[in-house]
């Protein structure tokens, strides 16, 4: 259970080829500068044999942990039998298995009539598809997106993404930016401001094709919208003839507890964008759930080679079978979320002014400064914990552990985090002295 | 060797869930309306047990055929050992293996100093990255793209794609459209027209950030540019301070014979976009080769969850090991290409005016009308051959067999195609009579 | 002094050619459906000989009234002597006269170092020039514009204009919309929201080239920003490297009292856009005042045929000579503004909930509904008063009398307005009963 | 008749205020660096009393010369009688007079059913209106514009303008650029290329809202399209559901001979854009002729303060009365055009390779280099002739004399031009020796 190996690295780690031949765009590897080889559950192992508790989880693409046994077995069986690996958007048995399970276990219990559009297997591709469809259906161009939203970096999605660093000063268009829930403090109900803007014929906001939102902004700093706010936004969308698109790429697949982050909020989105943990195994897969009223696509109007990543269908079906057939999984997530919450409350006391953010297994701690957060991550990594930041100033420590992390391991990781925060704060004080 | 099974289907094929729950955007499955289960080499099998010769090859994403044994073994070994499945853009042993092989087997022999940017695992994502980088490096916005070019359907890439059906009337921007090589007949050297436009300060063409081209336009109808034309375009790019981006998504990885479609043309692109057959196994993977002079990315400026699809790195490394370590593979491709060419010349005689298109294993037959081409595909499918069309009017039958298709099977497929063309023409004549 | 003639119209008014040959885009003539022939001071005369008190004043383009004697004389003298009528942007004596007076009477007393850019003679053209210059100077694309702002209808300016009716659903780009001062009630300091958006690296608001504002939004409903708010916006512009552009097209030239609407606010805009009453006589003229630090234009980079409307220079110089050489004019305006204010307060009592809007001679009454306001205008016109509405719902009666309207005539007009409001309200009540 | 005065300047010319207070954007005044005071017919006078023959004519805004007597008289009478100076888009007697004459003298004789939209009084504003209307009517966004086209510098028009200097690297959108008639030499029929692009569903050219062209490109270098080419373009517009917009701002009002530059070509444009010489007197005025089928404007959807420049209506009506009531004016223009042609042919012999450009009174000489052309203009100005250049490299000497220039004065101007060309060439040879 102790993830930190006593043994020394087994040999020199050659990372020269990365410096020599990988583009400067590489990112995560700069902070976590080792070479990973294998992983299982919530532990990653590098080539020196050292293990790390994974509180990053493929940035929420590994909600069920690494190499989850049921999925792994299903995948090995599929490959071993020469199961189709890629099938464009042909019918395949693997796709049918996934669709049937998704219908039975996810859509039907919620009374959702939606159809599934398999897009290119990235979240940004699915966002692009959703935006194009909303524009086609409504005949409008404008899209409402929110401060600190993150929806990908291809040009259409990037226009909706708030991050200036990623926006690169490019001439992006077609988006009206509106403050997210709570953005300007308690005094401002941002849904009321949006209502005013939409109702005002000279407010400068064109009639929208869509309102696009995350219920919990993952990259934006774990900002969680209230259910009441999401409901008001959904109502505005309906009143103004706009499609409601919920981007559940990071918050979906159980990350906040239930399968969809908006479960229980009383809203039925017109379109839902999913990716990341959809395949369960970390394999590229993405889709848009399309309300049948809006399924106005022509065949192959939005296309792409890898819409049929059959391996991902196999593991995705196994994930649904294993985790979502019984209601207990949501309880398991809730228990872990409570544990995380309790620990974070204690950790927060180390940093005057620190605030808890997020909900479910998508919680974190705003430590008020990106430098401090970065030091925490570095110290944590030295001690065997992989954790990252998010937020406008990278000031939010983000606990994205796999949803099925064993409780002792979760506690161990949180303890490592606590120590790292305490030491980072102490180091800061020393430096300041 | 006979791909057409004598046995009857083993049971009812349930396709209802596709109609019920898959979006109307689905495409290929409409023409090839069966449920595929497994595949090996150049044969696909549906759930009735029927086999089909595959002349589509995942739209050139399966250049080495389905479930190629060496890659399959490597992948099974990796998964079996809990090898990392997804690793964001962390360093991984699998990525290192791929990079080292790509450097040794592909880049160094060609004297290419390029670095590898792993993008989201779709061609369109890599095109978006290349366009953003070119705009950043040059500080310019305009991109030159060509008639009938196809580069993907996310908004940035879609602006460069010629297909009006996919463009959906969206307000796309930032692209100047120029006729491709041979577009307006022999009388017009389109590179001379482009030269004039670029040199003309009031020609209405802003100084370009990039010139983006395919050497053989796959979706556009297998239009092959001459080496001389590509060289002139490359020279224009240099003269005008634009980056030359070659989109080798469909034409690369040996499809035209050598690894890159521009090998032997005497040009060094600033950026090369690759995807499709890069992983060898049909797994989602894409990259941009970036000349070091232009590697001006900030860390994670272009990002995405699935940049580290480690399974794809494993099979991609195996593909390089297996097929590109020795020079013989290009000869094998050339032999098959000659065979395809010879057959297509014979088949062309069935259709007055039909023209051969493309080069290498990216050849086809322009039968002058989309209706005829569609009938050919339907007849072929009934007889056990999967083949698709491309071109502005879907009028080009496109032979995209795996590059290692056994010669007898290739001949058998071409014979099926010949029969389908002959019968489709006869049917047309009957209908017209 | 009685503007309502006792005599009957002198003959049939032929308006058929307007219906037959003028585009449906014509607007004001629909409400004020008569044919005007002449005008003097604050009175307009139609071809039946009837006179109207003019509370529209060319939509603030006739601040000194119609055919103001001093300007008329100067213009007749100029034309009579074959003075240059149009001179592109050549040096002309008329332009020099204007520039010297503008320097001496307007710029120097305020310590403004600005240069004058003569643009095409429309406000929208000057706004376009200012936006292009700000983008050139900063190398940025985004412009901050405000709810209910109105800056013209050519594509660059239209992107900044809030009116959805004028925006026509066109794909306008390059603008971030922010609530104007007071837009969302007293509880929201919109400058604080803008500050937050500008400081937030993932707020989705790209670094701006400019912040563009009217201190009093004329078309937007006579919304007057406080001096403190304008100062905060000016500070934000400086802090974030954006140019502050004040659009004084409607509020300038004494409309709010002093020459510039921002006089006395303690801000020095980087660029000021002027038009409408600039020529004094209603002749087309527009300019941008450019702080020398930003005068980075290349010769003729922004151009246009009628930048040298010499007739306008002649009357503009006479206007400065006549009205702005002595400080008394501002006092005269203030006296009239007080009179308007007092009357509007009384009139407001006729309409429960009505609110006074604007400041200076740019005041009006928000009667809460566009239908009521339209009826008031119609009744007023029948009685010899020309007055128009503005605001998002055309619900604000806008008193835009010439600044030098004789006090008795001003009183007479306000009395007509009072009667029209009272009768319109009574009519509404009758209709509702 | 000798325009060059013997007398010395009457005093110092103070131009300091221009340097001190006029923006660096000023252009023409740099080449013609004197201060103009008055002008009559084809002669301009500066404040030293020196006279110049005007071969620039307000860049074709003064087709009838300066201070044409009939218009001058009408304008003095109108102003003297307190005629309305500006009237927004109210009905005015002056507007009616203009409309009736325009109907009777221009539209009816040609059988044109078009209506008149009065726009903001600049050509670029009218172009913007035409583009917006075409987009509204068709529901499409793309506009076809041509190499070397010039349509103004506000953002919508600028996107159609070819000049890179004016385009300023701004992110302009919504336009497909196509080679103009003759652009790529005799071998390429550019209308055939456009036909191919429009018919090709993957050519990358979206279905166009409009095709926008000048029959003679004034700023682009006096490139005259053939009637056959214009007809083919008109046919393409009809076939593809696009509006044909002819920008007759510079070539209209008799500049090429008949009133419209397309008279006699057998085409009926959907929209015609006019400005420059429309008022006859150099006063700002612009309009769009709208075929009634397309007059889908809502009231004031496109608006602007100075749409009712009544002074311009007065002179415009007088211009129609004076010059277009009898057919003889076109003959007068033709006679002068022949004279210009004959002289230019002689002058061309001074410059090896020089080519005549344009047609009617819109002719010029391509002297192959901008430096030489600039020297010619400078020498000409020293000798009392005002003439400018156009073309991609400012290499075309442009003779834009008033259409009614007395023949002896026209000859005198052409002789001055001849001498300037000869001396400039000699100077070049000397410098090269």
Major sheet description of chain A: 7 strands, mixed
Widest sheet: strand ordering of chain A? 4-12-11-10-7-5-6
Query: Total number of β-strand segments of chain A?
Result: 17
Beta-strand fraction estimate of chain A: 15-25%
Describe the global form of chain A: globular
EC number (chains A, B, C, D): 2.6.1.76
Keywords (chains A, B, C, D): Aminotransferase, Pyridoxal phosphate, Transferase
Cofactor (chains A, B, C, D): pyridoxal 5'-phosphate
Pathway (chains A, B, C, D): Amine and polyamine biosynthesis; ectoine biosynthesis; L-ectoine from L-aspartate 4-semialdehyde: step 1/3
Structure, explained:
The structure is a homotetramer of 433-residue chains. Chain A is α/β, with parallel strands linked by helices. The first copy, chain A, has a domain at 70-324: Aspartate Aminotransferase, domain 2 (3-Layer(aba) Sandwich). Chain A has 14 helices and 17 strands. The first copy, chain A, has helices at residues 16-21, 28-31, 57-60, 69-80, 93-110, 123-138, 155-158, 164-167, 190-199, 227-239, 310-323, 328-348, 370-382, 407-432; strands at 36-40, 43-46, 51-54, 115-118, 142-146, 175-178, 208-213, 216-217, 223-224, 243-247, 271-274, 287-290, 355-359, 362-366, 385-386, 388-390, 396-399. The first copy, chain A, has a 7-stranded mixed beta sheet with strand order 4-12-11-10-7-5-6, with helices on both faces. In chain A, strands 1-2-3-15 form a 4-stranded mixed beta sheet. In chain A, strand 8 (216-217) and strand 9 form a beta hairpin. In chain A, helix 5 (93-110) packs parallel to helix 11. Chain A is globular. Chain A starts with 15 loop residues before the first helix and ends with a helix. Residues 1-11 of chain A have low confidence and may be disordered. Chains in contact: A-B, A-C, B-D, C-D. Chains A and B meet through helix 1, helix 2, strand 1, helix 4 and helix 5 of A and helix 1, helix 2, strand 1, helix 4 and helix 5 of B.
